[in-house]
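User: quick one, fold this
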Amino acid sequence: MNFRKNLLLVGHLEGISFLILLFIAMPLKYFWNLPEAVRITGSFHGILFVLLIYMLWQAKNKGLMGFKQFIIAILLSFLPAGTFFLHKYVRSENVD
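Assistant:
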């Protein structure tokens, strides 16, 4: 698997974990008094978020995205389901 595919995969996993955290774990915590759901899901999401930011930095350094695209990609990571649109901002690895 190439770096671009790995980056997009991590982006999708981070987006899914964010949605699970917001729409499943948070209601479990606040409506059914199950804080473990947020602790577990939040930890998994946090790891994926840090990994995504690191991979975006690496993509910028490898020339797979410019600085503007890098900033847009980071902003997308703060929106629910925003990372599902990363493919629009990451160039192919075989493009100069």
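User: anything notable?
Assistant: Helices lie at 3-32, 35-61, 67-76.
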